[in-house]
Specification:
Layout: E1 12-17, H1 21-33, E2 36-41, H2 44-50, H3 54-57, E3 59-65, H4 73-83, E4 89-93, H5 98-107, E5 111-114, H6 119-130, H7 160-173, E6 179-182, H8 189-198, E7 207-211, H9 220-225, H10 242-245, E8 250-254, H11 261-273, E9 275-276, E10 285-286, E11 290-295, H12 299-304, H13 310-316, E12 320-322, H14 333-344, E13 354-355, H15 357-365, H16 371-385, E14 390-391, H17 397-403, H18 405-413, H19 432-446, H20 451-458, H21 462-472
Helix pairs in contact: 7-8, 14-16, 15-18, 17-18
């Protein structure tokens, strides 16, 4: 079905290799909403033949369901890439195995999506591999390939703004009030919320995460509050909503800024009264649910623009935590890089890799619009293709090309140590006291707040360390 006239230059066609008609219809409908036209090949032979057709020559991407070629999925990817090297391929699978991700990427896949995949995640992946404004592969975000750690120790960084946010989150985790976490996409908001739940008094109670961007707007009311049979067309059975499911526990709402005004008012009323009313119900019931919510944009700005309910924003934002973007804490990039490489090296099919100073300087020169999540994706991709024991500047060719002279200059003459700025902007050395404070912050972050280990590695006693913390004005949580 054509969603855009073929004569338009920006018409995009995706080939779906899948033998399940239901999934084909679903993906076709999802892609159409974003201006894509989908052609479906039920098997590998048909897909290869379709590459030579008029439509096949106009393809922008391929979606391959692993179950169509089965164990030969990587072989099919390699065959498709040999015929159309520039065509991005995304593999759909029910397996969360990192080894399969590694094998698929080495065969030529650009990304790897675990089913069921949300409509937003699918379209984000398609857009990222077909955007002409940025390098197609190296800097494109990947589906998460590694399970996230769920405690504060996994939050790496020594930047004062970041450590202050963690200290605030650790304190808030011990309470029962609602919490709003703001920050750009990829800064680690969901990871922080999981850590907060794990450290909270409700850690053993019910817990659920709902990404509001991935739920159809017409279904959010039912997902949150539940519904009664016959309350709307297709509501054949009673559905328990997330609030009822999480009674006495924690409910995480990702991207709260996506709520419609009507749902904002409904949520505000539920939080004010503590009473939940399922869709179509003539009754209500009281629940005790703690909300942890995120927003990629500042809710205050949305309130000022009349786009978000002021009462709901005030209730949710009684405790507000702001995670800084990675470009504002570039000194954390070396520690983050080594942390991610250690985790990547634990994955099947990948090796433990070191990283050179030239590579760290190159990574620090980029502004990372996708933040920490994008850095992890870039390192994962580089590790997949690395044939040696260390990542160097040559491991990131597209990044080097993008940065050009800026990257080479940074690598050659950076005034930064490994995460520590040694020089002021005018070229003079910084005061020793400031450098010492930064070294201590770096050690605390590197050893994840284990003060005995920090003192041992710095070659000082614990009492001396705490005295220096006091003298230098460093918060113990920093």
């Amino acid at each position: 079905m054509d969603c855009l006239p073929q004569a338009q230059d920006d018409a995009r066609i995706v080939m779906l290799i899948d033998d399940e008609p239901a999934q084909g219809r679903l993906i076709t409908a999802i892609a159409a909403r974003d201006g894509w036209r989908t052609i479906v090949a039920p098997d590998a032979e048909t897909a290869i033949a379709m590459l030579g057709t008029r439509e096949g020559m106009q393809l922008s991407a391929i979606l391959l369901d692993q179950w169509v070629p089965g164990d030969d999925a990587c072989a099919l990817i390699a065959e498709l890439k040999s015929r159309r090297p520039a065509l991005p391929i995304l593999m759909l699978t029910t397996s969360a195995s990192p080894l399969l991700a590694v094998e698929a990427m080495r065969a030529g896949a650009s990304d790897y999506l675990v089913k069921p995949v949300s409509p937003d995640r699918l379209m984000e992946a398609l857009r990222s591999v077909t955007t002409r404004d940025v390098p197609r592969d190296e800097l494109a975000p990947l589906t998460e390939k590694m399970a996230a750690h769920l405690d504060f120790d996994a939050m790496i960084g020594t930047a004062p703004s970041f450590r202050a946010a963690l200290a605030q989150a650790a304190k808030a985790a011990r309470g029962h009030g609602h919490v709003l976490i703001e920050g750009e996409s990829g800064t680690g908001k969901e990871m922080l919320m999981r850590a907060m739940h794990g450290a909270s008094p409700r850690a053993k109670e019910a817990f659920r995460i709902i990404n509001l961007a991935s739920v159809p707007p017409g279904s959010i009311d039912s997902v949150l509050f539940g519904h009664e049979p016959g309350s709307f067309p297709g509501a054949f059975d009673r559905q328990i909503g997330a609030f009822q499911h999480c009674d006495a526990g924690t409910l995480i709402l990702d991207e709260i800024d996506r709520l419609t005004p009507a749902l904002q008012q409904r949520l505000a009323e539920a939080l004010e009264t503590g009473i939940i009313r399922p869709v179509g119900a003539t009754y209500g019931f009281r629940v005790d649910v703690r909300l942890l919510v995120t927003s990629n944009v500042g809710l205050d700005r949305m309130v000022e623009a009349g786009q978000f309910d002021a009462g709901l924003a005030a209730r949710l934002g009684a405790t507000r935590i702001v995670l800084p973007p990675l470009r504002e804490r570039t000194g954390d990039i070396p520690a983050l890089t080594r942390h991610f490489l250690a985790r990547i090296g634990e994955q099947p099919g990948l090796n433990h890799l070191s990283v050179s100073d030239s590579a760290l300087a190159l990574l620090a020169a980029y502004d990372w619009p996708g933040n920490v999540r994008q850095l992890q994706s870039v390192l994962f991709r580089a590790a997949v293709y690395c044939e040696g024991n260390s990542l160097t500047a040559d491991s990131f060719p597209q990044l080097s090309e993008m940065l050009g002279e800026q990257g080479s200059t940074t690598a050659a003459s950076s005034h930064e140590g490994v995460g520590i700025m040694l020089y002021t902007s005018d070229g003079n050395l910084r005061p020793l006291e400031e450098i010492e404070a930064d070294v201590i912050r770096l050690a605390i972050g590197h050893y994840r707040g284990r003060m005995t280990e920090v003192a041992r590695r710095l070659g000082i006693g614990r009492s001396t360390l705490y005295r220096k913390l006091s003298d230098l004005g460093i918060d113990n949580a920093a």
